Amino acid sequence: MGALPSRSVCPHDCASVCPVELELTEDGKLARLRGSRVNSYTEGVICAKVARYDQRLHHPERLMEPLLRVGPKGSGQFRPISWDEALDRTAEGLRAAAAQWGAEAVWPYYYAGTMGLVQRDGINRLRHVLGYSQTEETICIGFSDPGWKAGVGGKRGVDAREMVQSDLVIFWGCNAVHTQVQLMNWATKARRMRGAPLVVVDPYRNATAEKADIHLMPRPGTDGALACAVMHVMFAEGLADRAYMAAHTDDPRALEAHLESRTPAWAAAITGLEAAEIIDFARLYGRTKRSYLRLGYGFTRQRNGSAAMHAVSCLPAVSGAWAHPGGGALYSGSGLFPLDTTLIEGKDVADPTVRKINQISFGRALTGDSEALAGGPPVKALLIQNTNPMVVCPETDRVRAGMAREDLFTVVHEQFMTETAAMADIVLPATMFLEHDDIYKAGGHTYLQVAKAVMPAPGQCRSNHAVICALAERLGARHPGFSLSAWALIEATLAASKLPPAGEILESGGLDGVPADFNDAHFLNGFPNASGRFRFRAEWEGPMAGQMPALPDHLALIEEADARYPFRLVAAPARNFLNSTFSETPGSIGAEGRPQVLIRPDEAAALGILDGALVHLTSRRGEIAIHARLFEGLPKGVVVVESLWPNAAFPGGKGINTLTGADPGPPLGGGAFHDNAVAIRPHDHGKLC
């Protein structure tokens, strides 16, 4: 049979939000998926996990009908029910919880299983209309956003395609091979066209570091110290662009004075790098004006992550790289399109007095922690879309205990029987991105995109938007957004945002938002903040802002190793999973093998640990069993687990987030997933944890 070509947008939790081309067989099956060859950012490139999307779309274990729990929570015992019964039971469960405990006892919980604004954020419309508990969205950007905004302001930077004009490319805390493969395409072009070396700053020799010309391997949580020492050298050796700073920054004199004591020797003691490494990098960076700095999320997922992001983002302001083609920095470009999502999210009826629960405090909130509950009632009902908290939230033991409560009514709208879905009272089958309409912004590139369904939903699967609207009808929730189709919502949102109509954007393959004027694109006409200048003096906001440094610095807030927990753990992203997505596909499982902890051979030998042996990792939160893999590319005292594997994939059934903490970090309460002190010991051949 011949293949029928079409196109769409990859929706998954990734900065790329790739435009994709696909081929469907005549009977409607996905035959092939690849990156768009006409989009000037993607250029046909797609990650391997998405290239295998047929394995997800047509997976034999995909949920196809609504289910009602008939056994204990977590047992996986369900029976099929009709959609009407499922929606009626869901509405009654939410209504009963609100009637007895108040509307705040209902917590709609979601995140970025899709980056589509209609299918992801529409749950907020139901939340706001009915007064359900709100959510502090801290699980991903709770540190990185305030760190970037403290200096630059808005969430935009230099277009990644400008790397072809760069003489130096730096990936800082960004394992692009695993998480944003298009960046490697552009870095390779810079190397080929201009001889630009690639520098990777990351605490272990991952797949991106393997391809680097220079790899700086600081201890996790010490990036701010490294950045400060680099700026110290630039000031001391005349590599700082004083004319640029005088015209475009707030207080370079105070910064220089502050950094006088932040020497390479000072930073070496903190980071574990050699002072000479720091000096060489500072000279390379300071002398190369066309230097492109791509900042990732990884190095910010520490308790001092916001301070680290601010410190690193200061580098192109000191060097003056912003003023040059191919120079400057990018953290996220999602601010290029300030969409008016009032209709999608029901912002016009949001009540700011409704309590907000921190997203990372999921387990604590469900187990009755008064601080996590923010002064409100216990959580008595959950409506979950687009996330898998049993795997992705910190403090898994608490999450499991909370979700096992028999007095907690839980509805999960999902594509597979995840560990979260298995804890639900009602499970609803969800569509995938090729089966519904949506609109997408991106962090890694400059395009606003829309996509229409290219195939019908299988079985009884329904979109998030359809489910939210059906529940609104049963619950008596009134808002114009509930009466519109997904496509009509997209059209109305674009009109309110004074942007071209959806059909035009769809036909053109996306709306490119890169500023036409170089001076606008590089902030030479002003940075997107109230002062118009890059702010070395950070203006921190949030409940924990008082803990933040006024000028860029190393903030000593990380969970330091000690005698009891002598290692620092980084819970890094795996190449073939995206959070917990793709952990069900055979291709991704086969490529990853099994959960492993990377440990230096000398440190393993000292502990009597052999390659491939079963070991135990313990933190202040819990303990897991995992197999060891001896690995040279680590600083002393650091171990790495590339995950997120399901809990069930680990011996003993406890996954990596059993070890991670939910203590909120300043200034806004972000989640410190890469900031954990742990102990490691050989398996004693007794009972698994």
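^ that was protein a. below is b, sequence first then the tokens
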Amino acid sequence: MWIEGNYRRNLMDMHIDDWNPEFLSRLDVDEYIEALKDAGIQAAMVKGRPHTGLAYYPTKVGRMHKGLKGFDFLGTMVQKCHENGIAVVAYFTQIFDNWAADNHPDWRIITSEGKGMREFHEKENMKTGRYGIVCPNNKEYREYVKACLTEMNELYDFDGMFLDMTFFPEVCYCPSCRKRYMEETGKELPRVIDWQDPDWRAYAYKRDEWMADYAKFATDCVKKIKPHVTIEHQFSSIAASWITANSELLLDAIDCASGDYYGGFLQQTFINKYYKNVSPNLPFVYHTSRCDPELKYHTTTKTEEEMLLHVITALVHNGAFLLVDAINPDGSIVPEVYHGIMKRVYDNTRRFEKYVSGDMYHDAAIWFATHAKYDPNETGIEVPQKSFQPAYYLQAPVAASSVLREYNVPFEVIGTKNIRQENAKVLILSHVAGIRDEEMHEIEAYLAKGGNLFISGPIGNQRLQKLLGIKITGQTGHDFTYMSPTKEGAELFEGFSHLVPLTIDGHQMEAEITDDTNLTVLATKTLPYTMTGRCEFAAIHSNPPGIYTDSPCAVLKEVGESKIIWTAAPIEMSRPYMSRKVFFRMIDFLRGEASFTSNAPKFVEVLGWRKEGTDYFAVINQQEESPVAPMYDITIEVKGKAGKKAYLLPEHTELKTEMAGEDMLKIYLPKLEIFHILCLE
């Protein structure tokens, strides 16, 4: 595929309306192409149809943008990019299409309140009145999509297409959705959220299937005409809640994982690992904005340090970086971004492209369960009351990754498709509220070959509860609780005791032991003197422990050669240092011998990989704010590398090393500003 080795990319974001004749009047393709060339960009994503639905080329489907005055922007960009050795990924909006929504009211998404999305104003979650959103279940809308994609691919030769907005921004109750659900299930669409109800869970999964079916439909529209064109669907909503209906099922419709994110570097390293592992082909594509911190800050540009961190973090995970730039409404660009910052950044990172794409060393793998992206506490409520905010399903695994980075435990983030073949010593199920039976098959296969599990919070499948010898009976009414270590758990819970238990700022799952064979209780549940959230108190400012129970809240279970640790709440989400360290000790206990160790501080990530017989390490200073403070005296220790020397790349400068013990190579790094990449030979 053309994508191999194509790491430097760009998108000029231009969702521009045409009610003002000034809009797009200063669009200069030659200036744009020169900027891309000077920055060393290998692939340009070029707008064909933005969220306005107005085509940037002469079209017979819908309407062309008036400001172009008939100028074929898309076709000209395709021609000139190819003449200059730049690949073209054509952009097509779907579902978010103002022209389609305005001209075909019967295509619109209808919310649980009975409204179209543009009937809301100044609300959150796309309810601003700006976005016309249609339903992918509407058959007439699908025919419109087919006509658009057919036209674009018959007119032009793209290298790839990015089909944006492949998600439901709302739960849809339009006639098409109601009809399809009745035909497929014989039921009306449910309107009360209840994650304990199998029918509700089946409905949530049905929406995942619908979105995957639509994505496959759109992909097939392109592939039928141009089989070689690579397809990217917007995959960023994989990190959003169940509402978006994004799941791993979408992977069947894409050639590589691709999507835009606007969080910090911890978020990026988490999602880059996940993309690397689930993407059908590599590199995946990580998008983020030139604007700081996101596109609505139209005139503010990120620092060069921040851009360098974004690019190198994607690259070491074998990912392409796509800069999302914001064009001005009149069509002018900010050329100094390309002739300055991005030229320097890409000139720097391109020197390391030949070293990436190996097999990553990792001791732990976090399973990001895309079929369980919900808060089990958000139940028994009407659909309009739902929350869009990330809950445990994302917060807990990201918190786990933060602790692993802090203690320099090399880790991956994987999908369901990766579990069976995963060779990490520990698989982490961080507050996974629901596990489908087919996913449980993969977990059992992983355990059968000697893998170990860490589970926090819910035990999302009855088979897993049986395997653990634990039955979940509910959750505490108290929303501030404690874990009191037993004698057997004292070492893992070091710093805490029966009288000074570990604090949990939240509920705990309640459980009873059903099979104590090879089961060790590590901690028991302790509650405050009084029920939290009420006027009665023992201490006016706090909820100190007072009710000690024998109920298990942390257990160790041995299953054949495997070990499983379960905690009744996600201790990885704890803020206190001592509490996070308990989580680390549990992972360290389960993993045994480390692949490598480092003394790097908690915001510095150390990654290692092996490619063509050579070991590489990347050390990245992922501080969340500029200016990035330099770090000193960082070391890496690697076992089994006696006789090897370490070299700083790309200059191949030899680094100081020494043997720490009989078989441990200790590498001393020079001052770390943004990143180092080194190899062992």
